[in-house]
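Q: What structure does this chain adopt?
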Amino acid sequence: MPRLFHALLLLLAASFACQAQAQPQQVPAQRLRIVGGLAGVTQYTRHEENFWARELAARTGGRYSASIVPFDRAGVPGQEMLSLIQLGVVPFGTALMSQMAVQFPELGTPDMAGLNPDIATLRRVVGAFRPYLARTLRERYGADLLAIYTYPAQAVFCARPVARLADLANRRVRVSSATQADFMRALGATPVYTEFAAIMSNMTTGNTDCAITGTMSGHTLGLHAVTNSLYTMPLSWGLAVFAANRENLEALPPDLQALLRTELPKLEAAVWDQSERETTEGIACNTGAAGCTRPVKGRMTAVAPSPQDEARRREIFATRVLPGWLQRCGPVCAQVWNDTVGPAVGIRAPLAR
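A:
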């Protein structure tokens, strides 16, 4: 009986093999695994998720598709994202530059607090830094830079009124980066490092008096319900890198590689345009102005920075933020700054002798 059973198995296997050879070969569908940006914000819901979960399959007739999960719900520590991409554990992933800069401060160069007062400056700064970033990711992590995203301008939400930068003194302020912390300390405020998902709980419990976050991101969280003053100076923007493990990328079919290199710059441009619009609309939605298209509107008071505060911003960046960053990073950062962003903004860092 065992011999007969074994013979039957061989006969069935041969039969399946013959059938497979008789049928035309089908090109198998390929499904990519993507770790995207922050959950719940427009960059993810309207652009990243839409492109990967729907548009990719539609544009390739279903031949290629992708599944995507936001990194803050994927159980992936933000500071480890690039290492996981390097190992191939995450073939395609999004990493916040502020979190990357914890381990490698030079990677936080283009979005230091107080550096970019408007999106035009941010575009110029990122353009100057991009070649260095691409080369560093390739050489250090074996990763290909596919896109750089930005979130809307990060402003200051406060439970008590703020009319000028000096009013932040003696307040506990949520920050997300070392340079934001430097900026707050220069004002006499106490920086409190808080993950994006924990902002609301910290505000409602009184652990923080103010929070630095995106104008629309804050509205999405519901900060307009627990704060009443929005100081609209863009302290940072929130840049994110989308990169691929090089071996995984090069293993893809050539037509899929070509499609990604063509379409991802378009996705990047759409995200930047959306962030520019949402910077303005976020202010409108938090204050209840007519420019808000969201169903829920707040009643906050928005305060624009005065010329005096703009001058204070430049002074704090030059005397506190930039020197603090150089001290943490060392001589390599001074050279990186002078080779990339420094000439774009007209500030030169002193080189160690």
